[in-house]
């Protein structure tokens, strides 16, 4: 009979460069960052794009909504959702050292009635009945210490993610890695959600490509998205109007964004 082994978890450390603090898992690869003089802002471009689900959410409803992060990183998304958007926020992280690092070095607040950090394997945790249909914004950024490929990247995993979402919920995923295939990952997401539910950004300079999938497919008019994007920039300082230049719905017959 197969026995489960306790995973060997990497060492957690950080480095400061100017006014930016970076999280590392025992390598030079950056797992997250924080502005030392603005710890609740989002510094990295791809992490800002992980908030693209805001384009599909009524800003007035956010305080009553639930955000979940799979992979805590430097707690950037968790802090932004809880402190800035004032949402109920859950983060699932495998490595307890990462949680300790975020609380000690990256200004992650203690758990409270609207913030919960769960130390668990995300693949197992998200199958629990308590989470099904409860998440309005799911943000998936699961990488090992080498940042080589997503740790969880199967169609079954993305189907489990879809089951977490509320009827109008969205998932954003960071796809990046030296040995990963963006096209294959995109096909798996489209297989779980349906191609007509998927949107994608062009890659950042660093090679991160953020993909968004809706629980219920929708194609808002560009004018409506532009208006929402301006609201996002005005209220929360995220460069959402720029997103619309590089953010397109997937062509249902192809595994790449449609449109010019």
From TrEMBL:
Catalytic residues of the enzyme: 141 (proton acceptor)
SUPFAM superfamilies: S-adenosyl-L-methionine-dependent methyltransferases
Keyword Lyase attached: no
GO MF, one annotated term: transferase activity
Keywords per UniProt: Polyamine biosynthesis, Transferase
A Pfam family: Spermine_synth
Domain PABS as annotated: residue spans: 1-218
Top-level taxon of the source organism: Bacteria
Gene Ontology biological process terms from the UniProt entry: polyamine biosynthetic process
Entries under InterPro entries matching the protein: PABS (IPR030374), SAM-dependent_MTases_sf (IPR029063)
PANTHER family, per database record: THERMOSPERMINE SYNTHASE ACAULIS5
Family: Belongs to the spermidine/spermine synthase family.
Identification of the protein by name: Spermidine synthase
Species for this entry: Variovorax beijingensis
């Amino acid at each position: 009979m197969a026995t489960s082994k306790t995973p060997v978890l990497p060492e957690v450390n950080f480095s400061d460069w100017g006014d930016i603090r970076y999280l590392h898992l025992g390598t030079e690869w950056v797992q997250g960052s924080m502005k030392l003089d603005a710890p609740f802002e989002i510094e990295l471009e791809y992490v800002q794009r992980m908030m693209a689900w805001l384009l599909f959410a009524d800003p007035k409803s956010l305080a009553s909504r639930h955000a979940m992060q799979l992979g805590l990183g430097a707690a950037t998304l968790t802090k932004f959702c809880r402190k800035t958007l004032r949402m109920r926020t859950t983060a699932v992280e495998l490595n307890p050292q990462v949680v300790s690092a975020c609380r000690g070095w990256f200004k992650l607040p203690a758990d409270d009635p609207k913030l919960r950090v769960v130390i668990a394997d995300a693949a197992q945790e998200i199958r629990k009945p308590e989470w099904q249909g409860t998440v309005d914004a799911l943000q998936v950024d699961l990488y090992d210490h080498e940042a080589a490929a997503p740790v969880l990247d199967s169609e079954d995993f993305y189907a489990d993610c879809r089951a977490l979402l509320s009827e109008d919920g969205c998932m954003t995923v960071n796809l990046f890695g030296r040995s990963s295939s963006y096209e294959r990952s995109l096909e798996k997401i489209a297989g779980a959600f349906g191609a007509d539910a998927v949107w994608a950004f062009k890659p950042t300079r660093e090679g991160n490509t953020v993909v968004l999938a809706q629980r219920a497919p929708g194609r808002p008019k560009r004018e409506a998205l532009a208006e929402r994007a301006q609201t996002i920039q005005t209220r929360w300082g995220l460069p959402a109007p720029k997103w619309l230049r590089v953010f397109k719905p997937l062509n249902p017959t192809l595994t790449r964004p449609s449109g010019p």
